[in-house]
Amino acid sequence: MIERVDSGIRGLDTIMYGGFLRGAVTILEGEPGTGKTTVGLQFLAEGAIRSGEAGIFITFEQLPEQIYADAASFGWDLRALETRNLIRIVSMEPDVLFEQMRQPGGLFERLTNQLNCRRIVIDSISLFRVSADPEQARASVYTIRNILRKLNLTSLLIREYSGYESQYAPFENNVCDGIIRLSLQPHMEKYRKRTIEVLKMRGTRIMEGEHHFTFTREGIHVIPALSMAEEKMISATADMLTTGIEGLDELLGGGLPRGSVFMIDTNSKANHRYLVMSMFVERLKAGDHTVSLMTSSSTIQGMTEISNLFGVSLEDAIRSKQSFFIEHYRKPVPEGFETSILNVGGLEGEEYEAAFEEWFRPIFLHGKEKGKGWFFYFDVNTVVSERGKAFVLRFYADIAVKCRMAGITVVAHANFTELGAETSSFLERSSDGVIRTWVDGKYQYLQVTKSPTGRMSAPRIIENVDARPFIRLV
Amino acid sequence: MNETQDDMSLQLECTLFFERNPYALETVRGLAKKLGRSELALEAVVERMSRLLILERIGEGERAIYTYHAPAVRQELDLS
Prior knowledge:
The structure holds two protein chains of two kinds.
Chain A: E1 4-5, H1 12-15, E2 20-21, E3 25-30, H2 36-51, E4 54-59, H3 64-72, H4 78-83, E5 87-91, H5 94-102, H6 107-115, E6 117-123, H7 126-130, H8 134-150, E7 154-160, H9 171-175, E8 178-187, E9 191-201, E10 210-216, E11 219-223, H10 232-235, E12 240-241, H11 246-251, E13 256-257, E14 261-266, H12 273-285, E15 289-293, H13 300-309, H14 314-319, E16 323-327, E17 341-343, H15 349-366, E18 374-379, H16 380-387, H17 389-406, E19 409-414, H18 416-419, H19 421-430, E20 433-440, E21 443-450, E22 460-464, E23 471-473
Parallel strand pairs in A: 3-7, 3-8, 4-5, 4-6, 6-7, 14-19, 14-20, 15-16, 15-18, 16-17, 18-19
Antiparallel strand pairs in A: 1-2, 8-9, 9-10, 10-11, 12-13, 20-21, 21-22, 22-23
Chain B: H1 3-20, H2 28-35, H3 39-51, E1 55-58, E2 65-68
Antiparallel strand pairs in B: 1-2
Helix pairs in contact in B: 1-3, 2-3
């Protein structure tokens, strides 16, 4: 397993799904004033303070005394770390570094050995371009990369970047394992925003796109884009239940947290059947119990057929009292299944709620303590058409709270557009997560717009595939 | 100002530079750029400082690298 190295920069490890790979050589580029040196210093200082990993900052142009002063403004006492042999701020000329790196037993080797150095920052490799022709500069950077890799040093090579370079890729980009770009861009006419983007990182997934960052008293803080405050109570303690759809599990950070309430919002054209059925059969396969609130068009027979496609026998699950149903309509019921169905059709007002309450009470009270996992599929559209919006708002919130407390995982389905903004907003607030799927043109899309882990995703296209679970996110 | 006083002044400047940047690894050329002094004037000064063991010289000729021999400090005293 490849070892990860904490970047020391809050939020950056999230974007890189766990930090730098040990020994990776990464270009850190940006225009002047974008924060490159601070990122480099934070990488070394936090590595020394938090992980006890020694690091060397090599500067060609700045004086170390200026770097000590800059670092002190973020609370990093580099001189003290130097006394403890955890940091060295070394000034030298680029050609001297290159010469000493190549020399067996040279100053570079002596320095890295003396400290047991694990991290290094070179500020900046652009100077190799200035002092040599392009071929020679390329060879120099290539050699440096090889030496850094040989010594297994996790390295940041700072590179000055200017807009005109965007027309062609600089050679350093091909030579190194990763590229991180810092930018300062116009924001809402009057303001400027600082962004960080991981353009390339070999061997690890990355959260694509630009992410905002700010300078705080403790250094740089990156705020991963499309993320909201994480619901620690759920995400820190829950098991993650697979949805059966690999791409969706990834978007959700592992799956549905057990005991969470998720809403699937579809527009009228979007097909959500395989999405829901995949989650449903995964629960049956895991031995959990299921309760499904049926729509006007769904039948046990139909669900059985789809479950068979997924390789799971719903009939067996019903007979063994693993699967139950709530029905609002009179539909033919296969023989022997009657006791697994709660029929609430024709019940009025308090009777309706009382029937639910009575039926669910043992699950709410004892489901968790008996170690049984329960999964509840709730079709909001059906309850709205039978009981009205006002009822649903109260009922959904009540069910959501009780299920959460009992550790029951809920997946509800609604059409937010049909329900209107106010009702949808309420349902969204009452849910821990929202998965939206819609058809636009010739494609169906899916996006996680709210999740307990704080993750929001970019929209993904749903592609139909022949094998289970019959859909794939692209 | 005579030559000796100039040299002493430059030696003080060099000492202060290395005191403030104790892990600098500089050639005469690099030091000249950082201090804004001529290489010619610095050559004799850094050579004398290495003889006095204030600096350590690594290598020979114009590629020689000078690094600081920080004086051993037993205890910091505030004399103000």
